[in-house]
Amino acid sequence: MAPDVSTPLVALDAVVIDTETTGLDTSRARVLEFGALHINLGLLAADGFALRVNPGEAIPKSASDVHGIDDAAVADAPPFSDAWPRFVEVTNGRLWIGHTIGFDMAILARECARCGLPFTPPAALDTRMLAQIANPNLPGYSLETLSAWLGVEPGPRHSALGDAITTARVFEALATKLRDVGVRTYGEAMRASSALTQVLDQQHRAGWVEVASRPVAAAQPERVDSFAYRYRAGDLASRPARFIAAGESVQAALSVMMSARISSLFVSADGQPAHVSNCAIVTERDILRAFNANASRAGTEAVGAFASRPLEAIDTQMFLYSAAARMNRLRIRHLAVTDDSGEVIGALSARDLLKSRTSEALALGDEVGAATDGRTLAGAWSKLPRVSAGLLADGMDGRGLAQVISHEVAGLTARAAALAGDEMQRSGQGAAPCAYAVLVLGSAGRGESLLAMDQDNAIVFERGVPGGAEDAWFETMAGRMNEILHEAGVPLCKGGVMARNDQWRGSLEDWRERVGGWVERSKPADLLSVETFFDLRGAAGDLSLANRLRADAFDAAKGRNAFAKLLVDTAPPTDSALGLFGRIRAVEGRVDLKKSGLFGIVCAARGLALRHHIVDYSTRERLEKIRALGLGGDQDLERLIDAHGLFLTLIARQQALDIGAGRPPANTVEVARLSKLERDRLVEALQAVGSLETLVKDLLFAA
Predict the structure, then answer these.
(1) Same domain flag for 169 and 27
(2) Cβ–Cβ under 8 Å, residues 466 and 565
(3) 172, 239, 353, 456: which could join 346 in a potential S-S bond, CB 3.0 to 4.6 Å?
């Protein structure tokens, strides 16, 4: 069975195959040897499969001179009809990968036909074609040439298993090269291969099986119950959190739980709410175990002795699906719910989640939190497009989906930061020298990310100076974090807005000075990419540092009207997508809704939020708060809010379709796919953007 089209090449489950034959003529050659090697989640298996086959006829000397297999070598080997079922068992319905694999498949198809055995060409990738996509200027594409180019150590040459091993190593190296030319997933690799029409024509004339004869067809999305993707832990948590002092008796804890009809209590030193690191939890099951161990004494024992540590916690903004997946992964039934400072403010139980139908919606689990490297992160991340398509099919709009995707971006960034920190410690560079926070900027910070994205991140740390010991540690950590994210499927930012770069990393004091320079002395050239900073949101580490930095930044910009105006003025101009008579002007059937609408609204809302000291995150919230100030333009602002939501929905739907068809996601929408009602609404939305410049100018200078 073919993998999902969104599965990254670095995280595929596949089998690499090769055959040795009596010749190169697909109409006459016979199989002499099978070789196969599994790839499991992108990792090559340690052991492979090799099996020789008796062709039932003399082996030409010219063939034996190549691979060393003569009549004596296969005298006791099974015939193809007996060997084939063993090979099928090894391949086990997996994606096939091979070098010029169309030749092998043609030989196998003919052998099966000769024996009256069924053969259905499996989904397959050809490393020769993939190499031509990655580097069309190589002098040749033999395994020897590719091994030398990629620095791959070849396996034993001219044996089926040896060539399969070499091909597997070549594929592993090619996955990185292909990523650099914009081919990351199985679907994208298939579509790119199908564009090599000259190669496909040559294969057809040679009688090979065509492994990429047509583009990948978009699959119909399966519906995903969107309830758990719409609501967050804070919506369902039991509040306030119930505490008991660690020195209180088990009997006292049981009495509180029975009277309050709750299944757990948080435990702190004095029975008062505290930071999660200073808390534990005792559940009804813990108490039952205590009485079962010693019924006569359990009631008088201190409850702290039976409490579970460390306390597993989630913040109030975590979606219910993610909370449920966390419980499943850790095999627990209770989670603490914390505020931004890490203080326990509520509780969430498996019983609460069952009431919310969350168990039906765990298509997107907690694999990101359990990932051990960039490869496993890529595998976890690859589920997002399929889930996105399902949520859209269940009626979720673009704004709702963007919040889910942004939540996952923050989680992915947090996990990449943790993995980078672990690598630092293993390499002897020690733990973080001080408290820090990893920030997501831009669309992820606003909660408006869709599936076409790159990295926008930064780091703030508690103390240190540029180039000092602390900064050096975070520079190394950030560099590895950015590479892990790139490997996982979030490309490096072309504009350089990443924590590995000096201007996007610094102590809290450095950041305050940097922001002060922006708002007091900026010139247009100084503000490239700066606007994304004011969408910052903490993703990992000490989130109080992120919150302090954000508050300081907005305070610094307060009253700096010239700065707000400059941010708006330096934003790229909006490209009008309307032509004569108000018709949508498409390019190759598509319209770029980011350039022609979305980006202008986002930039305007951000600038107006800074001008009027509105500290909300999302574009919608910012526009609604501006409208609530009563400064005028109510109807125009309402139209912009509606336009922003429509743009997000149309782009999200198109991205899901494109990924399903093996195309990289973009911000362009195919006009012909829209219904008449949607086209009419889109024209109205683009017209609303047309009045943006005048509206923003009026509101920037409104009192």
Answers:
(1) yes
(2) no
(3) 239
- The domain that contains 395 carries what CATH number? 3.30.460.10
Pairing of strands 280-283, 264-268: antiparallel
Peptide bond into 433 cis (omega under 30): no
The percentage of the chain sitting over the pLDDT mark of 70, rounded to a whole number, equals 95
- Sequence-distant (≥ 6) Cβ neighbours of residue 497 within 8 angstroms: 441, 442, 455, 456, 457, 458, 504, 529, 532
457, two tokens: 């991140």
Answer yes or no: do 49 and 153 share one domain. yes
The pLDDT value given to residue 703: 66
Examine residue 575 and state whether it is found in any structural domain, yes or no.
Answer: no
Residues 156 and 273 in one domain: no
- Whether residues 380 and 259 share a domain: the answer is no
Question: By C-alpha distance, which of 329, 313, 325, 342 is closest to 237?
Answer: 313
Please tell me the distance from the alpha carbon of residue 168 to that of residue 172, in angstroms, as a whole number.
6
Residue 584 phi, psi (nearest 5) = -70, 130
Task: Calculate the alpha carbon distances from 331 to 129, 334, 350 in Å.
Answer: 45, 10, 10
CA distances from 392 to 228, 348, 397, 404, 449 (A): 14, 27, 6, 12, 15
Q: What is the pTM of this model?
A: 0.85
**Residue 573 located in a structural domain:** no
Write down the H helix ranges in 491-618.
Answer: 508-521, 543-557, 561-570, 599-611
User: How sure is the predictor about 362, in pLDDT bands with cuts at 50, 70 and 90?
Assistant: low
Domain of 650, in residue numbers: 580-700
Give me the chain's average pLDDT, please: 91
- Number of compact structural domains in the chain: 4
Q: Which residues is 458 bridged to in the sheet?
A: 439
pLDDT in tens, 605-615: 999 999 999 99
- Helix (H, G, I), strand (E, B), or coil: what is residue 274? coil
Looking at residue 610, its pLDDT comes to 93
Tokens of 670: 């195919």
Q: Give the 3-state secondary structure of residue 604.
A: helix
Alpha helices in 427-468 (DSSP H): 442-446
